[in-house]
Every structure is written in C-alpha cells, then in structure tokens.
Amino acid sequence: MKNRLELLLGFVLVGTLIGAVYLQPERTKPPAKPLLAAEQNAAQKNSFAVVNVRVFDGETLLPNATVVVIDGLIAKIEPAGAPIAADIAQIDGAGKTLLPGLIDAHTHTWGNAARDALRFGVTTELEMMGAANRAAANRAQRESLAFTDQADVWSAGSAITVPNGHGTQFGLPVPTLAAQDDTADFVSARAAEGSDFIKLIVEDLSAYPGRKPMPTLNSAQIKAAIAAAHAAKKMALVHVSLKASASGVIAAGADGLVHIFANRAVDAEFIQLAAQRRAFVVPTLSVIASFAKTDASEAIANDKFLTTALTSEQRQSLMVQAGLGMAQPGVFARALANVAALHKGGVRILAGTDAGNPGTAHGASMHGELALLVQAGLTPTQALSAATAHTASAFGLADRGRIRTGLRADLLLVDGDPSLDILATRRIVQVWKNGFAVQRSVSALLTQKISEQNLIGSFDGPQINAPFGTWMATTDQMADGKSTGQIKLAASGAKASAGALHISGTINAGFAYPWSGAMFMAADAMAAVDASDKTELVFYTRGDGREYRVMLFSGESASGIPVMQSFKTTADWQEIKLPLADFAGADLANLRGLAWTADAPEGSFEFWIDEVQLRE
Description:
It is a single chain. This protein is an alpha/beta fold. It folds into two domains: 97-444, Metal-dependent hydrolases (TIM Barrel, Alpha-Beta Barrel), CATH 3.20.20.140; 447-615, Sandwich (Jelly Rolls). The strands form six sheets. Strands 1, 2, 3, 4, 5, 14, 15 and 16 form an eight-stranded mixed β-sheet that branches. Strands 18, 20, 21, 24, 27 and 29 form a six-stranded antiparallel β-sheet that branches. A five-stranded parallel β-sheet has the order 9-10-11-12-13. It is globular and about 80 Å long. Mean pLDDT is 88; it is low at 1-43.
C-alpha cells in the first residue's frame, strides 16, 4: 500500500501544483497574516540612505556613491560624502554593492511565490501563464508604494493554445483556440481579461523523446495571434522548444522567445533574423538544467548564503528534477552554446527561470540563472543587466530596473562585487520593496492558524469557494492518465441546504493507479495551515454506493505521503465523522490539503459532499 500511496501522492500533488501554476479558480482569499514585528517596524518608514556603497545602476557601475530614498522613491544619487538630512537613517554600504531589484522574466506565480521571490531580491516577476482573475490585484499592487511583502507581478494570463494542446493537460479548464475560431477575437478576449502581454504556446512535445505528441497552433493562427496582440498594443511572446518553430514565430513578428531551444544549434541565419527583428530570448537555463538532470538546482538548495531564506517547500522543489526526457547527452551544453551564440550575435538575452517548475524555486533560482548566463558567455555585468535594466526596457517597465532618481526603491544590497563575481548576488545583506525593508528570515514566517474556522465547504453560494483555501478538481490526466472528472455546484444539499458539491467522472484504464475527485488546498499551492486544535473531519455525503477515500496531506514538506480513510456512499444523505487521530501520522500543525477521490474499479462514478467541517 505504501508504494501505491507514494505514486498516488506524486501525481495528485504534482498535478495539483502544476494546475495551480497555470490557472487558479476564483476563490475567497485566506485571511491575511498579521505582520511580524520586524515588518511592522519596516512599514513605519520607507526613507533611508545607503552611503559609501558601490552602485550598479542597471547598466554601469559607480564605485563609491550615496543613494537617498524618500517615501519609497529614489531621491538622490550622489558622490560618497554628500550631506544627508539628519532625520534620514544611514546604512553603511562599505564593501557592498547596491543593485536594482531583480526582475525574473519567466515565472508562474501562485501561492507564496511572490513572497518567496522577494526574500531573494526578486522584486518583480513576469508570469508567462497564470490566472486571468488576478489581473486587477496585480495591477493595484504594482501601482502602489505601500508596504508589501510580495514581488510585483505582470502576467500573460491565459496563454494561446489549442484544444488538447500544451497547457490543457493539467486538469483545469483553460480557454483554447479551435481551428474554426476567430484568432483576433480570441486574443482580444485575453487582452480584455487584463493580460499584460500575450503568450503563444507553439509546442507539440516532439523535442521530448517518449512524450505523447500534442496538437499545437498552426502557422496561420500564429501569424494572426501575433498581429492581434500588436493591434491590442501587447507584446507577443512565444513558448517554443524547436529551432524550426523559433524561426517561424520570429519571422511572423514575435517580440521574444521565452525559452531557448536545444534540439538544434543556432545558425547565422537565425541569429541574423532575431537581431534584425530585435527579438529577445529568455533562455530559462535553470529549468533546462533541471530537465537535463544537472546538479545546478541542488547547488542552489545547498548554497550556504541562500539556504537560510529557503522554505522547506522551496528546497524540496529544488531537489526534484523535471522529467520530460531531456536527460540526453548534449542538451544542456547545446542550450548554453545557443545562448552564447545569440548573445555574441547581438540578440538580447533576458534573465528568467521558469520558476514554479520542478528544479526551481522562486527568487533563489534567479541567482542560479545569473551564474548560468555567465557560464554561457555573458559577463557578470551583462548578466546583471539582463535581470534589471534590459528586462525593464524590453517590457516597458519605466519605474523599475534601474537605480535612477524618481524610480521606485526596489533595491538589493549584497556583500562584495557581483560585477566581478556573479556569486556575490547570493550574499544578500538587505532587500527593499517600495523602500521598505523586507523580512528575509524563514524562521519568522507565520503559519496561518485556523482556530476560528470550522467550515471549509458549504457550497451554498454562486461559486465554489470557502472561508479559506481552494476547492478544485483533480484527475490522473495530470499524469497522462485517461480518467475524467469534474466538480460543480448542485442545486440542493444535506439537511435541505441551498447547495452541495457534485463530484463525478469516469475511472479509465491508462494509468497504473487511476484517480479522480475533488481537492481542497488549505492554503495556496499546498502551503500549510495550523489545524492542531482540530479533532474531527465531518461532512455529509450521498452517492452511487461506491467506496471513496479521503486523503489528508500534511507535514513540513509538501511532498509528504498522505494518509487515508475510506467511506461508502448511499442514495441518501448521511453524516460521516472521521476522527483526525485515525489519520495515523498526520501532522495537523502543518495541514496542507484534503482530497475526496474515486479510484478502482473502472467505470463512472458520482457522489456529493456538503457541510465539510474541521471541528475542534
């Protein structure tokens, strides 16, 4: 049974997390965490001066300067020794370097990602596929100078892909562009949703040996989508993994590639095309290194200058290598060589990690990406520009990416000189966001306590949500299985309540341990909440007479093995009470999620749950 559980966990959890990367459903936000004492102090003042400091302004190095911040904006950049108002706190920067906050040009930002990124000096993330419903909140935060403990986010929202194409396999509904659809209308809908730029997915998985082929956008759709993006005054960025695809989309007018291809070496013709079209490339060497089974991500996880700010989830992600069959001789070396050739040929290279994927961690992986860019032939200064001024310029981010008078004080202070040794970016002394000092200690992070919450699902409203956490469907399609499933609101529930959660689908052969059902994540991206004072899981259920399972996910790491209890449905509503003590080995102080699932035997299933509670 343990082996079965380990496999089942791997696919349920990975599927859940990947689904969260690409599209989080509408939900009620969990209660805000109280500010830590250090954050409260920081939030009182966002004016200070860093004196006697080496300054990398995004492109050039000032050997000894003073930078003054007033109310979250850079007010002055003066020679060292310039007079400073008496009421401005001074920070001695001797032997240190002040940099603009780093910009990660390729992420998937969900859960605690923006908070994790900020601790490592990544003050801005550019999300290359995510939930369209976060657009307004993203915009409000990045336009504000108020205290925040999260990086700012720009997002592509829903990407442009075809039915059953890449991006649709993660168990959540995404908009797709069918052959008969009007491409311009489809792109316009993404812009109306709030996409800051448009991302096209041109991927049939043929670059990954052993992977099942997928349909992808055709050349006519690609040209029309790029034209429609430009008509909406949005950049058109493209996911590719093949050289032929890269050439085609650049010729069609794409503004940039958000991966470097590694199936073929670049040639002079491609370099000339990309340079003439002024297209940029975000290589995402961090995730390619993970695919290729290098030790790059493990080195980040074990770096003594980074490890104290890593959460257990970040460390776990770094230690898990992606498995898309790219561990082929020469793949990673070819990726490095392609970046080197493009850079030498005058093509703009921007720093991005594809954080959110196995082998990466938000924030921390950017420091690895910088080192990989240097390994690919950029100088340390060029790599720093790729993560600051050059990305800001490419994406039109006028208020950040440089240390310049009038720009926001998103800053990173490090010990040493990263223009000589790129590894110095890891020796972080302080991070500021909007001029406020950022709390970097993981030990100071609070676990959300849910003492006041009992109900986690009544399903009586117009949407599937909860006082905290997220409800979503989960199936083995995330592991290339063939089971189907959906969750939806039912018109009536237990005890004549207004609604219930209807869970249905079909268990099909095609995966060794098929499953389908509903997942409740206690916090974003399987982060933990403290439910140590809860003693019982109670819910009402009815159904088709099959036996189902409740799986409880807990522990300090999101990769922990779940524990299970079974229950059987009848045609009538019945109350199920499961003592939490019977979930042997569960760590309720770190509750991560609960799942109600069907597995074998094959065939269709349906059941309902209602009034789900964690009782004291």
